[in-house]
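Tokens help. Our protein:
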Amino acid sequence: MKTSDHAPLLSIRDLSIALPKGGDRPYAVRDISYDLHAGEILCIVGESGSGKSMSANAIMGLLPSYLRPESGQILFKGRDLLAQDEATLLAMRGKDMAMVFQEPLSALNPVMTVGDQIAEVMRVHHACPGEARARRVLELLEFVGLPDPATLMHAFPFRLSGGQRQRVVIAMALALEPALLIADEPTTALDVTTQAQILDLIRRIQAEKGMGVMFVTHDFGVVAEIADRVAVMEKGVLVEMGRAEQVLNHPQHPYTRRLIGAVPHGRASERARSQAETVLEVRELRKTYVTGGGLFTKKRVVNAVDGVSFTVRRGETLGIVGESGSGKSTIGKCLLRLTGIESGELLFDGQDIAKLSERQFRPLRRDVQMIFQDPFASLNPRHTVGRIISDGPVANGVPVAAAQARARELLQLVGLEASAFDRYPNQFSGGQRQRIGIARALALEPKLLVADESVSALDVSVQAQVLELLGDLQKRLNIGLIFITHDLRVAAQICHHVIVMHKGRVVESGPPAQIFDAPQHAYTQRLIGAIPGKEWDPTLIRAAA
């Protein structure tokens, strides 16, 4: 533990934030107190809706207009942030304290290049004038592991993958090396190697500058990897706090024990591949993107998917793993005809859907459904959750009443309350929105389900519930499931077969036991080696309990 006898950098005292009347509970957070010292990492864990992000936003003065702290203090270097005006907080944000948000797509300006957005942080605070600012931008882009920084700094956010966008947001937060860094699920969208790099980067800067880090996460592997202390929140209440070793290996509160009990154990499954008929066969699939060619950039051809072949049988889960930019999500988009392909065959139930026109493919869409990676971008903000889930079945001939009844059932199955049916996406956390996307994909009971990072934004208990739901649905309907993920622990646990992608190619494939326990390719070995918290085994805690 890296704390000292000096006064804490951040001290929260009896903080309560009331929710609007008529909700499911009166408080977002209730009477929480904890300290964060310079040079330490405090991990805040808990389920979606536990108040983790709410308390972090309160520190930054970024609560929604309809929410205000009802009581308590937030002392930063002895100064009560709740007593400061907006101008003072604005001057402190970025310079003294900075935040990495959970959803990079909503945190970045879509009409500004990523270089300009990083430079703006320095411009607002009059830092790094002239050419030094451009050099600092390049340095930051390189620090967070982005390829070809000189070219990428002129790119717009939509040109980047989800993981790359998150790295840009992290670079913005670190630009002025603040004393306090609040990271709200900063590695959720990142593959394990990039995650390891970011965690190492945060630790390194923290050590050099004595920075205090509040790390909000649902990933207990990350907690085991970096935390000095851990705070566990449940329904707005702080239920357990202590040193990381104590909380992870000797949890005291029943809620903490339940959370740890739901953590994927990461041990390779021994599930035999299905001998049922093939629902999908992909042959030599190729997809190329052309980028650049503008005033500041050269034309660049990227082989996003380069000669990929695999099969998926009914009742079988195929895992696709690899780093951000490896081509995983592009494969999913090709399968759903959301992007064109250069060549190859997509044989669905023996029919090559790659050759079908959009009109010919439309009747098959109900049989091939996708759970998208980014719930913020994939849900219509103008529609209620009930309509979002029931629109698909209604469009395919299901009576409105039956479709709505099914939507309510699915909301319950994915762990949302009945009141969610009449609410809008912006009224939910990121993890809750992902559950809505899962319910929508399941509404049509497809033959093939493509899950693109479908549980990456979920806390471990809901993640376990959703994985169980997908498994039950797969058995009941005998569907094929393509599980695209960067969470190797989950892939090891639920997949029958795994393919490893690197720069658009399959570099290794086989059963989970082979891939995770005896990887053959150097790239696969690097992926396995980067899993956070590898030395911590949650099954030992479950066995002790």
About this structure: The CA atoms of residues 19 and 25 lie 7 Å apart. The chain has 22 helices and 20 strands. The domain at 1-85+215-261 is CATH 3.40.50.300 (Rossmann fold). The chain has a mean pLDDT of 88.
